Amino acid sequence: MERPLFSQQTQIAVRAVNLAERIDLSSFTAEERLSTSPLVVRAGNDGCAVLFRYGVAVMFGLLPVEEAAFIADIKKLCKTPYSEPPEERVEIRFAPEEDERIEKGVIVLKSPTLERLQVVADCLSDSVVLEYYERMTEATFDRVEPLARSLEQGGRGSQRSKALLRHIGSVLLMEHRMVGRIEVGQKPDVLWERVEFESLYQRLATEYELRDRQQALERRIQLVSRTVETVLDLLQQRRSLRVEWYIVILILVEIALTLYEMFLRH
Q1: What residue numbers bound the domain in which 160 lies?
Q2: Element (H, E) at 246
Q3: What angle do CA 209, 34, 117 make, to 5 degrees?
Q4: For the segment 52-65, what is each residue's pLDDT rounded down to a tens digit?
Q5: Structurally, how many domains does the chain consist of?
Q6: Do 106 and 182 belong together in one domain?
Q7: Are residues 97 and 227 in the same domain?
Q8: What is the pTM of this model?
Q9: Are 106 and 193 within one domain?
Q10: In a 10 Å sphere around its CB, with 0-12 CB exposed, 13-18 middle and 19+ buried, how is residue 32 labelled?
Q11: At a CB cut-off of 8 Å and minimum separation 6, what does 108 contact?
Q12: Hey, is 184 helix, strand or coil?
């Protein structure tokens, strides 16, 4: 007989961690999977974890030592692990007679069904992914701004142009990952079959400001992209102007040499 989750506990700890760029979920057998879309597996003594292919693990009801052991095992399946992974911590209280809500930072659920846990995990995973890209865009902008100021003040540019190209590449990579892989902002798959959890999802999405943070992040990425491209255009214009001056100088030198030869003949 399969043991129940959480051993009849009425309150559990939840921890969501954005571990890596990707987790290989194919190694889990059918027997290990409690549910799919997203994948739910057993973890710890009587807890579970929801895993997302884009690098997030959400652990439910694990002791700190169990969390550490589970993360160590999952890291073996990770591609490009992050050195400082963003995380979210929250408590869940199970109360069958109460309405499902968020109260003073605690998520109140009627029961620990897998569908409810998947909805919670989806919102928490979006939150830690957004935090990761918020950090990245902030760091990118902090690197771009000094380059822009230096060029504005007449700084030289060969090395700076290479740095700017790297920043453009990092911004494009962020956009690609957010749109093509991570799908931040999309509703959980479980809602297509269990529409009764729609209100729970909306409450959690509002609590973690997922839509507002996503829109703010998209605006920040656009701002960084425009800033980098503008500075690069300025750098290219300066190079074009420099080339034009070189051409003018060469023409003047050629004229001077021609006049000098004419003078020597006379």
Answers
A1: 123-265
A2: helix 210-265
A3: 25
A4: 999 999 999 999 99
A5: 2
A6: no
A7: no
A8: 0.78
A9: no
A10: exposed
A11: 92, 93, 95, 98, 99, 100, 101, 102
A12: coil
